[in-house]
Write a structure and sequence with these properties.
single chain; about 400 residues; mainly alpha
């Protein structure tokens, strides 16, 4: 009897550790770099920079999760981000700078920059959606493999970057756009946001328990749900404390939090999200059930295009310019972030939150090596090894399940 209890306990412990493996890995990486950098890595200023750096890849990872869940891959996201970043800078510097006074002759000069940013964001997001429509149509309706379409797209849009920039950096970027990527909210507003988030966490915990009871699902004991909600709330509060010790919560991180929550809700609580996981989990069974597979694949790639547009806009504001090398290697970092976060390359499995943590791990590795002044060639080698290791773990995990 005792052995059976021990076995059951070990299974629960193993299952719990597996669920939090990525968070444990992140904590170990932070601890390691804290030692190697004599504490510099965990200073508020560096943590603030770390989260800001991770935000751009995280925007891409939220879309890439669903692409990989389908069983597809998108190798073009880095080039698409670079292209849209160049277009963002081009529109601000060479189109709307002169056009705004003509469109709004009665407006004060200070308003031209804001209107330029608004028009730029609208145009870039429309263009991003059209890129997603184009690639999604080729993959879903013409049945060209996603690998080939996005590999070709990687070359096409990298050429687009060179065409838009003409091989030169495009500056200056309007301050209103720069603030979106580099700005902070006030410390007081940060605390208000933290309190609202904590309230939502506990509210969703209670609502979730009631929904499980309503539909007859097993409901965990109350203390477990409360402990989970309290832990997440403590992380949120700790983050606000650390950020307020520097300059406050970063605006791009807030935007990312909103986008991640929205995509997470869509992926888990809507037909579209469930269909995406069904397609990746068992394509034939999904087809026989009457689900419109082509439409699902198409919409996922459109969403990926839009998120690449958001990342491109944030990147332009972050570097305050449109550059030739914008978005370079982002596709590899995005895929690695998803796989590290538990998304299976075999399809059908992956979470938005996992991808967020995965992107934070990748950013932590890059940031830590930079703080250590490690040679750039070692940084490339380490990132490549991390990607290979993550894929290997995914392969082993799938073999064990089968």
């Amino acid at each position: 009897m005792l052995s059976e209890q021990n076995t059951a306990l070990l299974k629960k412990l193993r299952h719990g550790l597996k669920d939090y493996t990525v968070l444990i890995a992140l904590a170990l990486i932070w601890f390691l770099f804290w030692i190697l950098t004599d504490g510099i890595f965990l200073k508020p200023r560096n943590i603030s920079n770390l989260f800001r750096q991770a935000s751009i890849i995280s925007f891409l990872a939220t879309g890439m999760v669903l692409v990989i869940v389908l069983g597809n891959i998108d190798l073009s996201v880095g080039s698409v981000v670079g292209f849209l970043s160049a277009v963002t800078a081009f529109l601000q510097v060479r189109v709307f700078y002169d056009l705004m006074p003509k469109l709004f002759p009665q407006m004060e000069a200070a308003g031209y920059g804001i209107m330029s940013t608004v028009f730029t964001i609208i145009v870039v997001l429309i263009l991003a959606a059209l890129i997603g429509v184009w690639q999604g149509s080729l993959i879903a309706y013409l049945r060209i493999p996603a690998f080939i379409v996005t590999l070709g797209g990687m070359q096409i849009f990298r050429g687009g970057v060179l065409g838009v920039t003409q091989g030169k950096t495009i500056t200056p970027i309007e301050n209103s756009l720069v603030q979106i990527a580099q700005g902070y909210v006030s410390k007081g507003l940060g605390w208000i946001i933290a309190l609202v988030v904590v309230a939502i966490i506990f509210l969703m915990t209670i609502v979730g328990r009631n929904q499980k009871k309503t539909y007859g699902f097993d409901v965990p004991v109350m203390w477990k749900d409360l402990l989970k909600a309290t832990t997440i709330s403590a992380i949120v509060v700790a983050y606000v404390v650390i950020m307020n010790d520097y300059r406050g919560i970063q605006i791009p991180v807030l935007i990312l939090a909103g986008v991640a929550l929205l995509i997470s809700y869509v992926s888990t609580n809507t037909r579209f999200g469930r269909y995406a996981y069904a397609v990746g989990g068992n394509l034939e069974a999904t087809r026989l059930s009457g689900i419109n597979i082509k439409k699902t694949i198409f919409l996922v790639h459109v969403l990926m295009g839009i998120l690449a547009g958001v990342a491109g806009i944030i990147l332009t504001g972050y570097v305050a310019a449109g550059t030739v090398n914008a978005g370079k290697d982002y596709e590899l970092e995005t895929i690695a972030s998803c796989v590290i976060g538990g998304t299976s390359l075999m399809g059908g499995k992956g979470t938005i939150i996992g991808a967020m943590v995965g992107s934070l791990i990748m950013a932590s590795i890059v940031n830590g090596m930079s703080v250590m002044n490690m040679d750039i060639f070692w940084q490339y080698i380490v990132k490549g090894m991390v990607l290979i290791l993550a894929v290997y773990i995914d392969v082993v995990s799938n073999k064990q399940k089968s």
